Amino acid sequence: MAALKDNKPKENLSSNNTIGTQYIFVALILLLCTLLFGILGALQYVIPGLFRNNFSFEKVRPLHVSSAVFWILLSACGIVNYYLASIKGKLWSNKLYKWQWYLLIIAIILILSSYILGIFGGREYWEFHPVLAVPIIIAWILFIINVFKSINGFRNQPVYIWMWMTGVVFFLFTFLESYLWLIPAFRANVVKDMTIQWKSYGSMVGGWNMLIYGSSIYLLDKISGTEKYSYSRIAFVIYFLGLFNLMFNWGHHIYTLPIPKYIQYISYAVSMTELFLLGRIIYYWKTSINTAKKHYHILSYRFLIAADVWIFLTLLLAIAMSIPAINIYTHGTHITVAHTMGATIGINSFLLLSFVFDMFNTHNQKIIHKITIGLYITLAALFVFWISLIIAGVIKANWQMHNYTSIPFSVMMHTLHPYFISFLIAGIVASIGIFIIVFTLFSYNIKQKS
Amino acid sequence: MADKIKVLVILCLLILFLSYSFYLYKLNYSSVHSATTLADKGKILWQTKNCGACHQIYGLGGYLGPDLTNIYSSKGDEHIKAFLHAGTDIMPTFNLSDSEVTEIVAYLKSIDATGVAAPSKLKIKQDGSIER
Description:
heterodimer; A: 450 residues; mainly alpha; 18 helices; 0% strand; B: 132 residues; 2 domains; two-stranded antiparallel ribbon; 5 helices; 4 strands; 50% helix; 6% strand; elongated
């Protein structure tokens, strides 16, 4: 019972606990960079050849993707550090925490600068030169040490603590695994290389999701004022199911490669267990949090509900894409992009923003009103954005299944043009919504400090 | 749920995961070809120029340009060389030397030899799986 008491959220610490705040502020700037580079990339779909000579797509895409990945990673690190400090009173080592921060910031600045200069060497998601992975690896090892030492033991821990421990370890493992291509024997065989690459990426996303979903369970405990769920059998069953999916549900990325058939069957079978998660989301659609508590944490609550809607939509799409017979239609089309955008913006970003508003909880009605407007604008635009990508994907799927030999690629791309325009406009509107949220938060905090 | 059960479940999952991972690392993938030294140089160059930002291999990569898995057998090396030297209205000219162009072509040739990427060539089975 002592451990249970130790883990109880100490709400009054929120105002004094500054751990993680610098992570969150830089992460929010990276979120704005993601949107800016995303718009520049979408513009190149609408106006082909735009910025061809100076800032072409091979630079803009990694800037967009890496900014998004670092927004997620940096804020996830910040929030886990912050919540751990809230639970335990302090982190095991402030020195490790600071070194983790310096290493990550140095790596991010060097990586984004190298993209602008046109220096690459990696591949999708981690396009930077492999040398720049070294500070990330060291920073992550420091993070693992600090997390495990701060938690100090496995006995009677709530589910979110297990999720954080699993998440930090699996991220490092899969990040290292994604660099096996540096060994010539691995990269000599294209199919093997791609299999390992997408195996690692599939599990890596599961790794950082463990950090984010674990934090959301902690936040739900905090809002509801009870830890009953975090210690329940169902919470651990779902955690194990998530871990099982993290380990084995990555094959849908590579169904169309000439790989042994059992890889397809394993992933296909494992992905169907996600139906249980989907069923549970529908069943618990309306939570039992009472009105007073909702109002005390109103912004966090609204972002959690927004994420919940997107978990439902994205999981529905993910399950469909995990069926090989459907996957051959969606693979290599914008439906995959729709799925990624739903997961990164709709789920990860809304959950991360719900944590941010837990850190910087305000009861100023004017601020709450402004941020809620920003959220509603983003939600509406994101839905249009998502639908545009799905329609573009369906048209491309029809082309690659039936007409790819008779209709040239450029002609097919031309037919997608109206949907590229709508996804650009929706992207700009969603960016305005997120800008309102971030700008309101920044200006409020500056005023508070001054 | 008892702590012992939690640790046991995680250990079992971990053993399964590591066994599967190392099995895949060691797997021979015997039906596909290994790249030559020239093709390996081409692969590194492909990454250095970040070609994957716009192009796909087996449907994986960016969507601004076409999938290039089977471009070697469908268009031939001269066609590829011409594109690499001149660029297009959308693709920049990367100022590649002749030897670099040869390396990229060798890489694309090695990919082409591994199989057919077009999803329409795959057969859908009754149980929802697919096969070549």
